[in-house]
Amino acid sequence: MFGLQNEITGQIARALQFELTIADARRVTEHPDVLDYILRGRAAWWKSTYGTNHAEALDLFERALSLDPGAVEPQIWLALMLANRVLDFASGFFHYDAPDVDLQRADELVAQALAVSPNNPWAHYVKGQVLRAQLRFEDAAIEYEAAIAFDRNLANAYAWLGRCKLLIGSLDEVIPPTEYAIRLSPRDRNLAPWYGQIGAVHGLPSIRSVRG
Question: What is the pTM of this model?
Answer without folding.
Answer: 0.80
